[in-house]
Protein: peptidylprolyl isomerase
Organism: Paraburkholderia bannensis
Amino acid sequence: MFRFHNVIRAAGLSAFAAMALASSAQAADAPASTLPADAIAVVNGVTVPKSQLDAVVREVSAKTGQPDSLQMRQALKEELIAREVLRQAAVKAHYDTKPEVQQATSADARVGTQIQLYLKDNLHADQVSDDQVKARYEALVASLGKNEFQPRVIAVTDETTAKQVLAKAKSGQAFDALARQYSVAPTKTDGGLMPWVSYPVPVAEGKTQGVPLPLAQTIAQLPVGGISPQPVHLGNVWVIVKLDAKRPPQIPPYDQAKETVKQQLQAMALQKAAAQFTAEQMKNATIQQ
């Protein structure tokens, strides 16, 4: 079955990320000065330590397989700054004294709990109508191609390794075993297996259900069982891809899908409200970075 929730969630997170980055740009400027040693930012006089960023980077890398990079650090830095702004707002509203916060077992958990409670009480997401659900369902169906694909991928961090792994795959070594051995992608534990995805062919930018354009083009050109002739370079990684299966899209009827689509549109509305609320909070913060 085509996974509508993957498409909706990806769109919502992309919108939230854009809003969060915009909000950081709108934050009140601090007087130009040197940051304290081992700090990544100062928010209203409170230091956000570099050690906190280092810990989050290690955690994200361990969970996702993505290597440490400047892009990752910048994105996580923005998140930590936003988190500190919200933490201060929650403390000002005395959310740090709530029983749920006091019962949390660690300092990090207490911060997370008070921010969650604060946002829950202050966010006002738009309601989702039945017409919006139907329109979203129809748009998702219209965005599909004649086929859906299920690829396997192996992502590595340098071109030399990518070519070596590709040679092993083409020599007949099991692709799933190579993925478990070499891949830095989160799918390595599943032998590189990705969810089913469908998009129109010829492939066009912005119409690939979130799959990077070069990878989508490669997948669409492969026969079932085929392996990419060359590694696909995507940012900081090189990707070897194999097409495991291809079939006509498995589209659930509207009556079966509408509740899932509605729930995820509601989640998107909540993410949008969270981004807007965070932007407003950051406008009034003095941030040095």
